[in-house]
Amino acid sequence: MDTAPTNTSPAGPVTAVIVVAAGSGQRLGYGMPKAKVPLGGDTILTHALRGVAAAGIAQQICVAIPPGDTELHALCDAFARDLKAEHLRAPAPGGGQPPVVTIIDGGSSRAESVRAALAALLPATEAVLVHDAARALAPEAVFHRVAHALAAGAQAVIPVIPVVDTVKTVEPSTGDGAAIAPEIVTGTAARETLRAVQTPQGFDLATLRRAHEAAAAFDAGQAAAVTDDAMLVELLGVPVHAVRGASQSLKITTPLDLIIAEGLLEGPLGARWVEG
Ligand code: C5P
Q1: Rounded to an integer, what distance in angstroms lies between the CA atom of residue 112 and that of residue 42?
Q2: I need a labelling partner for 43 at 20 to 30 A (CA). Which of 20, 29, 162, 264 fits?
Q3: Of ligand 1's atoms, which has the minimum distance to the CA of residue 135?
Q4: What atom of ligand 1 comes closest to residue 107's alpha carbon?
Q5: Which of 113, 227, 228, 249 to mutate to test the pocket of ligand 1 (most atoms within 8 A of CB)?
Q6: Cα separation of 86 and 67, whole Å?
Q7: CA dist., res. 252 & res. 233, Å (int)
Q8: pLDDT tens track for 25-46
Q9: Cα dist from 146 to 29, 53, 153, 186, whole Å
Q10: Domain boundaries, the chain
């Protein structure tokens, strides 16, 4: 393994990284959970876990996988063994320990997977990063920017990138308009104020727990509208800080995304952790 698996920021809060990998991956069309889909000779989840380990910010890595998926369970076990073996081969100079790897059953939604992981964190945990396994190539520099903002006092921090497209709001067409096109434009958002949001998203643990406790009471419609953790924290009125994300952190969702991710690994950028 070519990564530095030990925690390299002992001065920061005790930190866990939750990796949510319990999705079905239907949009990718591989007929298997996305975490298992091959990428650059490994799986999407392997790349995501290596990225977390390489960042060296976590005392615990908690992975949510589809319930009963023995293959992914074995993959996570092997990853944990590799971390320990690497630590024995090359102990960290400051005496840091490799992160504890915890494997849990995910839930039926992303938010439920996060809630299940929050219940499995080590008691000493003070800060938590929540990361989509689907953002398998997130550079370690992004983890560092998020962790530094937390260490500087942020209760919530997200990585973002500028939006290059013009973004409009629409609603279904009615009346004569419906014969012309299915939707009609209702407005144009001011692009300079828009940001595309990525993971890992970082939180003070108590704040994220409070946000998810509030969300547990949502009705089905409200629950379906929850697409990230930061929006739950926003609902509490807690400021959410934004740091620079990276284009390599793309969420592998469609076959085109997978082609781009393969290209990032094989192309002129070469190494896995190039900052962009
Ligand atoms: O479905 P979506 O693309 O929003 O999923 C984002 C991340 O959340 C993925 O890494 C996926 O594996 C994870 N997820 C999960 N549990 C679910 C649904 C999604 O861990 N029930």
Answers
A1: 27
A2: 162
A3: 10
A4: 21
A5: 113
A6: 29
A7: 25
A8: 888 888 899 999 999 999 999 9
A9: 32, 15, 11, 35
A10: 15-273
Is the confidence at residue 276, as pLDDT, over 60?
Answer: no
Give the closest residue (by CA) to ligand 1 atom 19.
23
CA 220 and chain centroid, separation = 23
Angstrom distance (rounded) from CA 123 to CA 209 = 13
pTM: 0.93
Burial of residue 42 (CB within 10 Å: 0-12, 13-18, 19+) is middle
Question: Residue 28 carries which DSSP code?
Answer: G
Q: First CA to last CA across the chain, in angstroms?
A: 23
The answer to whether the CB of 99 falls within 8 A of the CB of 83 is yes
Q: Count of CB atoms within 10 A of residue 128's CB?
A: 30
* The predicted structure's pLDDT at residue 30: 86
Instruction: Enumerate residues lining ligand 1, CB below 6 A.
Output: 20-23, 34, 64, 106-110, 113, 132-134, 251, 253
pLDDT digits (tens, 9 = 90+) for 117-154: 999 999 999 999 999 999 999 999 999 999 999 999 99
Distance CA 20, CA 46 (A): 13
What is the fold of 15-273? Spore Coat Polysaccharide Biosynthesis Protein SpsA; Chain A (3.90.550)
| Protein residue whose Cα sits closest to atom 5 of ligand 1 | 23
Nearest CA, atom 11, ligand 1: 23
